[in-house]
Every structure is written in C-alpha cells, then in structure tokens.
Design a protein that fits this description.
alpha/beta, TIM Barrel, 2 domains, 10 helices, 9 strands, metal ion binding
C-alpha cells in the first residue's frame, strides 16, 4: 500500500469501530512489516490515536533501538514463529533462524514488550512440540501458543489424525500444569478451540447451567441467535476480527483462502460487516458442530476445515468427537 492508502484504510477501520462501538486492536504482519517504507509512519498514526497493537514478524531486523521505538509507539506484543527444533525450524524458514529467534526473546522483553512464540503444528513437527515448550520456557518467553497448519489447494491433509492431535493436547496440558505449579511465568495460550473439547471431556470446562443471559464480549447481538443461542466462545470469524491485505482486499479470516468479503479501497468496512460477513455467522450450517452441545463454545477451526475442502462449515478434520445421526 502507498502511505495514502494506508491512512485511508486506517480511518476506515476507526469508522467501523465507532459505528459498532468496538475497541480497535491491530495485528500487523507480513513478511516482515518493519521493512515497509512507511511502517514507522503507520505506527506514529496509531500512537497519535492511542491504539495498541501486536506485531507478527521476523527476528532478523530486531535490535534494542527498534524494540524501544516499537514500545514507544504502543506495541504490546511481538510474535515470533518457532516451527520446530533447530533442524526442523531452519528447514521451514532459513538456516540460523532458530537461534536468532530465541536470541530476540530477550531483546523484546528488555524493551517492555511481551514476547510471544507461536508454533504452527503439522504432521512434520507434531512430535517436537513438547521440546519447543521446554525451550521457550527456558528462554523466558512471555506467551506460548500453537495453531494447526491450514492446508493449501495443493495439500489437503495436515498429516495429523484426530486422536493423535488429542494426544498432543493431553501431553501439552500435563506439561503446562507442571510448569504452572513450579511458578513458571510463561503464559500458555490455549489458542486452538479444540482445547475446549478436550477440557470438556476432562472436566476442566463445564457448560453453564444458564447460557442465554450473557453474551461473549464483542459478539454482535443481531447475529448471534439461532440453534447456538448465544455464541460465547470459539472462532472469532464473523464476531470480532477482519483481515486487510496489502491489495486492500478484506478477508473474513486471513487463514481462510476463499474468504474475501470486500476491498477497503472501494467498500466501507462498516457496511461489509453487516452484509458480506453474514455468510460466516450461520452457525446452524456447521455440518458437525451444529449437532454438538459445544457449538456455542468451540466449533474447532473452520480455517483448517476450509483449507481441506473449501467448505468453511465442514467438520474440523482433527475433531475426534463422535456424534451419532441422532445428535
């Protein structure tokens, strides 16, 4: 985007938040957004409006001065990827990037920014996740989370069977609890919504006795009815996030390849939100989840489902819950 386009996009976003009484929060990603020639101008504009943000970027251009400037502009978190131990991660990314990523955790924290390590799980690296957890805890990362790889049009399978994925959650849950009991300061963000299913089965999550009197923060009241009653959790697509690409294209979710709903240079985001985004709020269309008691809290990851067969409402490929036709 040109600087003029970035400013127009920014104010289009603020207009949306004003219309629907939302609090703006930006996630800025790339590539490496720091390399954009107008990156610091954008951050200055965000600072002028007191808008917090997270950077999802690379470690290669971080140093003490860059992190200090990021913090000064309002950066709350800086997210780095770690997609395996050294050999695997460097194969995914580039040689040396594993060590550089770990090195920059301290640089980020020194500036007063929360360091986030995100792992994308696939059949290639699933067995390495416990070792990654140990590594990021040792390095003092503030937050750790993982999400599943979304298949592309060329690859239709993540290489993870449902029960194998459940076993990973079980292993990680035990590890998280051990670290928390030992006073570990790393926050383990259970980002994947299948954690809800796992915790429901293990008793850590219980469906409230009364579920119609509340509303999940930011969920649009006029779009939350239906068999789900009220949407309390799970996927935020259609509830409180949008993605804007450098072309100006607006996507319902950055992980859903075919989810374009408009273009920020041509459309008012506030209008897109109540028109084109409606197709992502029909909770009764979820082929498996609509028959599950956890519909209002889980719904797995529609992006992973969509990546496999192009259907946003298809069953999550890693969901292990068995449902009968009568459910």
């Amino acid at each position: 985007m040109s600087w003029e386009q970035m400013q127009d996009t920014f104010y289009n976003c603020l207009d949306f938040c004003e219309v629907y009484d939302r609090l703006p929060y930006f996630y800025i990603t790339g590539g490496d957004p720091i390399l954009h020639p107008d990156f610091w101008k954008l951050l200055g504009l965000m600072k002028q409006h007191n808008i917090p943000f997270t950077i999802l970027g690379n470690p290669f251009h971080l140093n003490d001065e860059v992190c200090r400037r990021l913090k000064e502009c309002g950066c709350q978190k800086y997210q780095l990827s770690l997609d395996g131990m050294r050999e695997t991660h460097d194969w995914f990314r580039k040689p040396g990037s594993f060590d550089i990523t770990l090195e920059k955790i301290a640089c980020i924290k020194k500036a007063g920014i929360r360091s986030v390590i995100m792992t994308t799980v696939s059949g290639t690296n699933i067995e390495e996740i416990p070792d990654i957890i140990d590594t990021v805890v040792e390095r003092g990362a503030d937050v750790f989370a993982f999400a599943r790889y979304c298949p592309t049009s060329e690859e239709k399978d993540t290489g993870i069977e449902p029960l194998r994925y459940r076993k990973l959650l079980e292993t990680c849950d035990q590890k998280f609890k051990e670290y928390e009991a030992a006073g570990c300061e790393t926050y383990f963000n259970k980002k994947d919504h299948l954690w809800t299913l796992y915790e429901y089965e293990t008793g850590a999550f219980k469906i409230p006795d009364v579920v119609e009197e509340g509303i999940r923060q930011n969920a649009p009241l006029e779009h939350s009815a239906g068999r789900a009653g009220v949407i309390y959790g799970g996927c935020n697509c259609g509830n409180c996030h949008l993605t804007i690409l450098p072309t100006g294209d607006i996507f319902a979710c950055r992980r859903v390849k075919n989810s374009k709903v408009g273009n920020v240079f041509e459309d008012r985001i506030a209008d897109v939100w109540v028109c084109q985004m409606e197709r992502y709020r029909d909770y009764t269309r979820f082929e498996k989840c609509a028959r599950c008691e956890l519909l209002a809290w889980c719904r797995g990851c529609p992006a992973v489902a969509s990546g496999k067969n192009g259907n946003f409402y298809a069953a999550d490929p890693q969901c292990w819950k068995a449902l009968s036709d009568a459910d």
